[in-house]
Amino acid sequence: MARMVTTRNKVISTAAAWLVGFLIFFPILWMVLASFKTELEAFAIPPSFLFFHWTTENYVTVQERSDYLHHALNSIIIAGGSTLIAMLIAIPAAWSMAFSPTKRTKDVLLWMLSTKMMPPVGVLVPIYLIYRTFGLLDTRSGLIFILCLGNLPIVIWMLFTYFKEIPKDILEAARMDGATIGRELIYVLTPMAVPGLASTLLLNLILAWNEAFWTLNLSTLEAAPLTVFIASYSSPEGLFWAKLSAASTLAIAPILVLGWFSQRQLVRGLTFGAVK
Amino acid sequence: MATQQTQLLARTLLTPAVALLFIWMIVPLALTIYFATLHYNLLDPGSESFVGLENFRYFLTDPAFLASLQNTLVLVGSVLAITIILGVPLALLLDQQVVGLSIVRLMVIAPFFVMPTVSALVWKNLLMHPVSGLFAWIAQLFGLPAIDWFNDAPLFSVILIISWQWLPFATLILLTALQSLDEEQKEAAEMDGASAISTFIYITLPHLARPITVVILIETIFLLTVFAEIFVTTGGGPGLQTTNIAFLIYSQALIQYDVGSASAGGLVAVVLANIVAFFLVRIVGRNLEA
């Protein structure tokens, strides 16, 4: 009897979960389908769900007409560059706070967190003017710099929570055996820190890739990453739904894959360890 | 001796990060405060002059400010309500025994990884277009008149899109919290004859209080400055109907080039965000001790 109830519950919850999951995912699915339609079919009422003339023509046109690869490359350089630099600055800092904490470490951490609370729009004016003065508008280095600073607190926080979990006894044991700090770093700590480093890297790549305040305000063409490129479809060209869908599919596909790998770290990174 | 060396090393390692963040925090903010006291328009160069608090008076008494403040509050409040009211049951559902749970979870979490400009444009065109959108077709199937979403209910349309983006975040955090809930406690309650509803009210919900607070605070910080979704769908319109504080400041700065007034607005945004940040930092700080 009890078993029957559990089986029935399982069937019901499975059906409900799949239905809800499908509904939530549907807009993305619909966009991917539209990217394989002709412009006429993408627009058609009643819409065709699967039985349309499948074509990859949109993907070719998007590249030919608007130089998609140029913007994709910008996205890669900007997201990758800002994340790498942030990691280089954050690793030593998180390291030192996790392994040689002082009385003030907690305050420093919370202060770093509070810099993330500053709404970007609050400093839009000075940043824009500084960038204009120094010729940094619409440059990749300008965007790398600002995204790096914007994500630095999150990177430090994530790394700190990971480093904190490395048992200190191991360090002491290595030191007892006469390991120098350099050796300790390379042979003992790095292998233990790799998973944490990887997840931090991943989450921040995603955040930087999708960042759409500074990229929209500080770049127009030359340095424009995919967020800005897609935004250009909001003008009359937005009428080309199939091409918009193709460009969008390409823009989100890599990040969707990375994101699915990092969903557990997402909670940790975005709640600053407040929910585990 | 060794400890002193270690401490020196630790401080050296920490310095670059602290210095950078310090500059990042102080310089733009100080400039914003400075600009806020000037009459300064980029279209009228050379006319900069000190005007004291005039910009604040102008910004705060501008009818656009009240409208945009109201829109901001409605937007933040609605998205919070939607994501939590839907997120709690959704997290509970995903906490059940579900066949193929990992795939379902992937589908649920996906919208969070879609860049804001893509979600906004896909929803606006492919789904919400009054003639060729999927919603119009569905309405037609049921014999209902099609809704011209962005004309008839512009703010609601924006809220809908943003809720879709943030529902996964709320769900994922609540689900993570649910999974740390002690099963034995629930089983004990069931043994004592507690109904599913009272188990939920007296055990599950109190356990979710903290993660819900965290969701509210973090979402609020991001939602206070929603920009891209408005930028690509409505441009703040029609009229001021979808202009929030962030968009108002943007348009004063980069469309009207009124540096002084936009700076004053920026400071208002900073104050608003700091009220929320104050509480979030306290919650996170408490967790740090434990």
From TrEMBL, chain A:
Question: Is Hydrolase among the key words of this record?
Answer: no
Alphabetized, the UniProt keywords read:
Cell membrane, Membrane, Transmembrane, Transmembrane helix, Transport
Its GO biological process annotations read: transmembrane transport
* Signal peptide range in chain numbering: none
Membrane protein topology class: Multi-pass membrane protein
Q: Which InterPro entries match?
A: BP-dep_ABC_trans_perm, MetI-like, MetI-like_sf
For this protein, the record's Pfam families field holds: BPD_transp_1
* A cellular component annotation (GO) from this entry: plasma membrane
Could you tell me which residue ranges the ABC transmembrane type-1 domain spans? 72-262
Q: Where are the transmembrane segments?
A: 12-33, 76-96, 108-131, 143-163, 184-209, 240-261
Q: What is its main location?
A: membrane
SUPFAM superfamilies named among the record's database cross-references = MetI-like
Compartments, as annotated in UniProt: Cell membrane
On whether Acetylation is a keyword of this UniProt record, the answer is no
The record's annotation in CDD domains points to: TM_PBP2
Which family is it part of? Answer: Belongs to the binding-protein-dependent transport system permease family.
Could you identify this protein by its name? Sorbitol ABC transporter membrane protein /mannitol ABC transporter membrane protein
Q: What is the lineage of its organism?
A: Bacteria, Pseudomonadati, Pseudomonadota, Alphaproteobacteria, Hyphomicrobiales
